Amino acid sequence: MSAAPVLVLAFGNPGRGDDALGPMLADRLEDWLAAQGRDDVEVIVDFQLNIEHALDLADRERVLFVDARASGENGARLDAVSARADASYSTHAVSPQGLLAVHEQVIGETPPQAELLSLRGHSFELGDPLSLAARQALEAGWSGLLGWLDAATCSRTTATV
């Protein structure tokens, strides 16, 4: 079985307040994809990025990383991500840029086009509930995710015609 061409890789700790934003958005996406009967998008959820996730990028056309962020403006933000070797590959939490670089080095292929959807969180303590600002970021992130997904799958259709 071949990999779905589009991957959404969400990460965060559901037990640490607003750090749950990535997994929560992924859960919502999985339900939506199932209701739509779509199998062209794979969703992976984990506590954090690890170098092993470099293998999950193989044979993908587009990848969206989804994570909570602790600074910047409220809401959701979409940024392009490119491979950049950094020291994060040797830590327990690899950056999206570092993961793309590991993929390029280990797999030997150009990494897929990638973006990071980051959602602003405010409270990351163990056992904290989701903050009001994070709930608003989640809704903004959902709109951003659907827009990204539409563009990612539309460009695939155009490219294969």
Automatic annotation (TrEMBL):
Gene Ontology molecular-function annotations: peptidase activity
Q: Which Gene3D superfamilies match?
A: HybD-like (3.40.50.1450)
List, in alphabetical order, the GO biological process terms annotated in this UniProt record.
proteolysis
Asked if Methyltransferase is a keyword of the record, the answer is no
Q: Which residues form a coiled coil?
A: none
Q: Which UniProt keywords apply?
A: Hydrolase, Protease
The protein in question is named: Hydrogenase maturation protease
